[in-house]
Amino acid sequence: MNKTKRGLQLAAGIVGIVGAAILLISSIYTMIFFGALFEGVSADEAGVALLMVSLGLVVALSVAIIILCAMLCRNPEKDGKVRDFKGLTIAALVLNLFLVISYIISFSFYILIPLTVSGLLIAVLCLKHPANQPAPAQTASQIEEKDE
Does pLDDT of 132 surpass 80? Predict the structure, then answer.
């Protein structure tokens, strides 16, 4: 695999995991805060329900992004061939774009997190990966290190 592509893929995976964890924690905290704040108040129940549903959507998307980005960080070499994680990359990009759209609608500064991950994922998709590329040959010193 192209070293630049793999580096961008790892960067997208790590930034995606950290960013989605930040979004997950902040969304859960906000849900708890607003749940306690509006527990006894019945002024605008539809607005509170809409807020809780939108925060629940962010929680679900964040969990899915954490899982997909963790899968992107795996070693692409398997059975003597280098796998291309194009499907995982596209899935993670689509979920990040859903978060971007939701944060555009709500005018939140949290939009920077999914935008950064989306940019890295688009860069990964733009770089070439030759089909059926063999895994790099291991040197004798690398084989000895594995045995130890």
Answer: no
CA atoms of 46 and 26, how far apart (whole Å): 22
Looking only at Cα atoms, what is the longest distance across the chain?
Answer: 72
Averaged pLDDT, 111-127: 85
Nearest to 51 by CA among 108, 100, 91, 96: 108
Buried b (16+ CB within 10 A) or exposed e, 71-109: ebeeebeeeeebbbbeebbebbbebbbbbbebbeeeeee
Q: What is the pLDDT of residues 47-84, one digit of tens each?
A: 777 777 888 888 898 899 899 888 888 887 777 777 77
Look-up: residue for tokens 């997208």? 12
Q: Other CB atoms closer than 10 Å to residue 39's CB: what's the count?
A: 9
Q: Residue 20 in contact with residue 66, Cβ under 8 Å?
A: yes
Write phi, then psi, for 20 (nearest 5 degrees).
Answer: -65, -35
Return mean pLDDT, the chain: 79
